[in-house]
Amino acid sequence: MVEMFSTTWCAYCKRLKVAMDRAGIAYKETNIEEDPEAADWVMNANGGNQTVPTLRFEDGSALTNPSIGEVKAKLGV
């Protein structure tokens, strides 16, 4: 399953969630404002920045602010 790191105020996160829902892509959402370990992971994945949405895939790789096309390509769907 994909893990999406987000915040409540992120418009890009909301847009990607809608697109992933429409595409039938399951994900777990983690709010980095409520989870300091998640915020640290996002910063490590993004050169020290808390950039969201950042997605973590089962293979441990990440995509930052991806399009739905990039997510589908990564998942092979």
UniProtKB/TrEMBL annotation:
Q: Which PROSITE patterns match?
A: GLUTAREDOXIN_2
State the source organism's domain of life. Answer: Bacteria
Occurrences of domain Glutaredoxin (ranges): 2-57
**InterPro entries assigned to the protein according to its UniProt record, in alphabetical order:** GlrX_actino (IPR011915), Glutaredoxin (IPR002109), Thioredoxin-like_sf (IPR036249)
Q: What is this protein called?
A: Mycoredoxin
Recall the taxonomic lineage recorded for the source organism. Bacteria, Bacillati, Actinomycetota, Actinomycetes, Glycomycetales
